[in-house]
Amino acid sequence: MSVYPPIDEKNASAEVRAIFEDIKATRKIDWINDFWKVLANDPVALKRTWESLKEIMAPGALDQRTKEMLYLAVSMTNACDYCIVSHMASARRAGMTDAMLHELVSVVGMANETNKVVTAYRVEPDPPLVEAAKGPRHQ
């Protein structure tokens, strides 16, 4: 159960309604999901979160499917059920197949496993890996 009730579009302030309309127009959808409706209890946080998310998820060097799959992977790791369902749906709309999902789950599981082992053993990064991670601009 949500800490705050979802703010229905028809009962929202003009400021919140404007953000809801921008969400629908940007995402090409005809309804607002409960994440945004609950966040609308704090219009400042709603606006800040929407503006940041809209900027980060906009077209860029990564395609939409990759961005949604990354969001899904982090949501899995953080065990956020709402975000898993939401970004699973978005990733599927962006073209994620069952085979891609299976691989994603395997990669997330393996990354979590090996991250925990490295953390437990306190393994320091190898200098050649550190250099390679910097990328070609820094070498």
Could you characterize what this model shows?
There is one protein chain. The chain has helices at 14-27, 34-39, 43-56, 64-77, 81-93, 98-121, 127-134. The model has no long low-confidence stretch (mean pLDDT 96). It contains seven helices and no strands. The protein is mostly helical. The chain starts with 13 loop residues before the first helix and ends in a 5-residue tail after the last helix. The protein is elongated, with a radius of gyration of 19 Å.
Which key phrases capture this entry?
139 residues, mainly alpha, 7 helices, elongated
Describe, in short, the structure shown.
α1 (14-27) runs parallel beside α3 (43-56), α4 (64-77) runs antiparallel to α5 and α4 (64-77) crosses α6.
Note the topology:
Blueprint: H1 14-27, H2 34-39, H3 43-56, H4 64-77, H5 81-93, H6 98-121, H7 127-134
Poorly predicted ranges: none
Backbone structural class: mainly alpha
Tell me the β content: under 5%
Care to count the β-strands? Answer: 0
Terminal-residue CA separation: 51 Å
Q: Outline the biggest β-sheet.
A: none
Number of helices: 7
**Coarse morphology:** elongated
Q: List the secondary-structure elements in sequence, H or E.
A: HHHHHHH
